[in-house]
């Protein structure tokens, strides 16, 4: 399970098998669809050679990504990988929010992960989190 610095587990009683049991064995990554692409801020990867390969490919771009201008650098890197290896998309299983995670507008009590996008942009935790958690 990968969580960005702006995501937190908000339901410690959630059982991962509630999510993973519904996913076919050919899928290796579980994410939600973000604004216009897969949101990689919270992703669940199957323990497999393929997942290890994917992480290696993502990390190979680490130095370049760190100096990239703009937001969502991990998504930009993933788009590049999809261009290079289009079959990756066949390994991705997309769930609806708040199944895996929820942005503030979708979060309800019981949601597994609360994702307050923007920890580096200055919006931080206090801006819209409220007292619901």
Question: Mean of residue pLDDT?
Answer: 84
Shape: globular
Order of helices and strands: EEHEEHHHEE
What gap, in angstroms, lies between the N and C termini?
21 Å
CATH topology (level 3) name: Spore Coat Polysaccharide Biosynthesis Protein SpsA, Chain A
What labels would you give this structure?
Glyco_trans_34; two-stranded antiparallel ribbon; Nucleotide-diphossugar_trans; transferase; alpha+beta; 19% strand; Spore Coat Polysaccharide Biosynthesis Protein SpsA, Chain A; 6 strands; 133 residues; single chain; glycosyltransferase
Summarize, please:
The chain is an alpha+beta fold and 133 residues long. Helix content is 25%, strand content 19%. 20% of the residues are buried.
Description:
- InterPro entries: Glyco_trans_34, Nucleotide-diphossugar_trans.
- GO terms for molecular function: glycosyltransferase activity.
- This is Hexosyltransferase.
- Keywords: Glycosyltransferase, Transferase.
- With 133 residues, the chain is an alpha+beta fold.
- The protein has a single domain, classed as Spore Coat Polysaccharide Biosynthesis Protein SpsA, Chain A, CATH 3.90.550.10.
- Helix content is 25%, strand content 19%.
- It is built from 4 helices and 6 strands, in the order E-E-H-E-E-H-H-H-E-E.
- The strands form 2 sheets. A 4-stranded mixed beta sheet has the order 1-4-3-5, with no helix packed on it. The protein has a two-stranded antiparallel sheet with strand order 2-6.
- The longest helix has 12 residues, at 49-60.
- Mean pLDDT is 84; it is low at 124-133.
């Amino acid at each position: 399970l990968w969580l960005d610095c702006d995501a937190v587990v908000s339901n410690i009683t959630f059982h991962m098998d509630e999510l993973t049991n519904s996913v076919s064995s050919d899928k290796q990554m579980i994410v939600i669809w973000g604004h216009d692409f897969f949101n990689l801020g919270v992703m669940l990867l199957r323990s497999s050679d393929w997942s290890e390969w994917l992480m290696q490919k993502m990390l190979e771009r680490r130095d370049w990504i760190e100096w990239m201008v703009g937001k969502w650098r991990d998504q930009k890197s993933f788009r590049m990988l999809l261009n290079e290896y289009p079959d990756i998309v066949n390994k991705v299983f997309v769930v609806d929010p708040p199944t895996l995670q929820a942005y503030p507008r979708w979060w309800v009590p019981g949601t597994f992960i609360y994702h307050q996008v923007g920890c580096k942009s200055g919006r931080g935790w206090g801006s819209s989190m409220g007292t619901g958690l």
